[in-house]
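ok posting inputs for the ANZ job
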Amino acid sequence: ERAFDHGEVEPRWQAAWDEADVFRIDDDATDPEYVLAMFPYTSGQLHMGHVRNYTITDAFARFERMRGEDVLHPMGWDSFGLPAENAAEERDTNPRDWTMQCIDQMRDQFVEMGFGYDWEREVTTCEPEYYQWNQWLFKQFRAAGLVERQGAELNWCPSCETVLADEQVEGEDELCWRCDTPIDHREMDQWFLTITDYAEELLEALDGLDGWPNNVREMQRNWIGQQEGASVAFEVGDYGAVDIFTTRLDTIHGATYFSLAPGHPVAQQIAEDNDEVAEYVEMAEQADEDDLEVTSGVFTGEYATNPATGEEIPVYVADYVLTDVGTGALYAVPAHDDRDHEFAQYHDIDIQQVVEPSDDADADPDDVDVQEAAYTEDGVLVNSGEFDGLTSAEAREEFVEVFDGEHRTEYNLRDWGISRQRYWGTPIPMIHCEDCGYVEVPDEDLPVELPEFVHTTGNPLDAAEEWKHVDCPDCGADAVRETDTMDTFVDSSWYFLRYVSPDLEDAPFDTERASDWLPVDRYVGGIEHAVMHLLYARFFTKVVDDVDLLDGVREPFVNLTNQGMVLGENGNKMSKSKGNGVSPQRIIEEYGADTARLFIMEAAQPEKEFAWSPEGVQSAHSFLQNIYRLTGEFADGEALRASDNASGGTASDGEITFGSEGEIADYVAREIDATAARATEEYEKFRFNHALQAVRELVSLLRRYREATDPDAETFERGLVTAAKLLAPVAPHVGEELWEQLESDGLVAEAAWPNADAPADYDIERRLVENTREDVRDIVDTVGIEDPETITLAVAPEWKHDVVAIAREADNVVPAVMQNEELQQYGEAA
Ligand code: ANZ
Ligand code: ZN
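and the output
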């Protein structure tokens, strides 16, 4: 039996692509299609999630290349980070050797999967050639005023012995994202990138990113967390005017106390003369934020004047007021805020209602007892003098004027602390001198390379005495290097720019080329990066554009796809612990890369999850063998002798009753064109499973054509050629085999995509199958909807117009859309 041996076929074509430099892109290409997958962390082992991610971009890149596009499809290694240190400890090696070995292994696996990358552009973040630019960019950020050294209460993982960004702390239990250990808090000085300076633009530009999934944009919006409010000044004792930030200016008449954060300058001033306050401030600064109750706070003996009522209200210092949020000061309204309510009850402070439910609210004003619990909804003002009766919204607007306040927008987004007390990262290019303070490492001394790794409990950089002690670049005195390294999210915030000019020695990337080639046209990766990586990368892009390293590129990624998860056979997440992981290596060995790729791409559209299925794998494998056999038989001249039914008669393929041989050939020819048009459209839309369905249908038609009659050789061959080309992006090795049998001219990877001009009436025809009026009724009855318009709308809104038109006119057709998956489910549910 005619069958291909993937173990022989696949490496042969991989070598051929390499030989022909198929995936190389010239530096002088203008505006290539930039197709990018999130680069992998170098764990050493490829898992199915990687395979799916990289198959998607590879198939798309190959599709675009065949369509004649210049395609930039690079790959690199996110290779700094804690796991390498842990692995090095476990294996008594060092992070560098471990990482390099992982990279070699993963690169081999990528080649075996048939992924076509321009390896000349490989980027490895743990190499000084790369990370020197992290250091240089850090200095550019600093020059632009975007680097600050701040003392901050930080998330500390006691197990990893490192500071974590807020984004690296997971869940209400506050667990380390890497090791699931509950985190502590510590107060430490750290280097921050002031991403908050870009909060507004990062938020607003999300509206324009319509190539992104809505859920990701929403997650970023929530993370940035815009709060519209106002600031108003209160006179505090003899300390002058203190600005507060509030989102509830409507409640100002109900302010019964005033509260300062322990870090607020006025709190610190009061502490100078007041031992009790001093003690509290010191305690609050040392305590873990979460250990303190909402009720924790101390009366200062001072009073503030409420500008709305003229009343003197007591001033507290309270830990629940955060120093770096808003102005670090607030007026408290126990009647309408939960925390203020709890605090007031504990400290025996007045609770004064100033808002009650409006007439159209669910709550009855008589049921609201603010002594019991805060009423936190908007409503109508009461006990607010001449302003009684205003709605909360009206009051908020009016009071800004009345109390001489200012509209103010706050964000939940915090500055990005990038200091990590770990070895395997980019050294922060700063030197600390007793006399000069922090001094930058001069450009000519970059990169600051990592010293040799030593096994130690703390940070190996602290132990590297020789490396650590240097002369101050300013005054020459003895000084000490910064021993913190950068968060690895710095590495991934601009790697997509480095691919543009990976070997450039005097700049991180070529400004002109990067400005031409960016943004990335298609970016594919996991939803877990919805906030951190994607927000940081957007931030970096805006900053490098603002410091003129780019020329007008404000966003790095125009189209984003988050691939769904690959589940184990039982529908659970694949994992080692559940023992349901399927190793890509094993699948490659057993069935070949193309089978794995085809199965993954047929199983579901990229965004959807799917469960691994041996039957699915088998089906993909058989299909590849079938098309190989059909093509091989044709190439050997066997195909045209298949039928006895050669002349005249009527052939039936079950759906369509053919007329003459000529009519059949015409029909097949039309189907070939229609398939090319349909598959092209589906590829463009990232609906690879639909495109592959079209290819399967074409191949099945060709087989039936051969069985039914003596096929027209030219038409039959065109059908096979078309199928081979349409399949090649997903199953590239088999694609080459088919191509070789059919044309043997060059590589299918470099061949021209089939003409995707649809036959004249294709737009209508492809959506229709011949059917009877009774079948229409049947479906309508099953679904339980009388009006065909409703059905087609529910199923395929974008097809509405012509489908409905035809359904109306023709007595004997059913829109094919009615037979699609969604409708079937719909029918089953009914
Ligand atoms: C008065 C007020 C009355 C407030 C009321 C709320 C309800 P939310 O609402 O959680 O999104 N705030 C201001 N600065 C703060 C700080 N540094 N630390 C902690 N809390 C602070 O956040 C906005 C509210 O948080 C602000 O509005 C302020 O309390 C409090 F019935 O002002 B409000
Ligand atoms: Zn100095």
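notes: The pocket of ANZ (ligand 1) is lined by residues 227, 245-248, 251, 261, 321-322, 325-326, 328, 330-331, 333, 336-337 (CB under 6 Å). Residues 584-756 form a domain with the Isoleucyl-tRNA Synthetase; Domain 1 fold (CATH 1.10.730.10).
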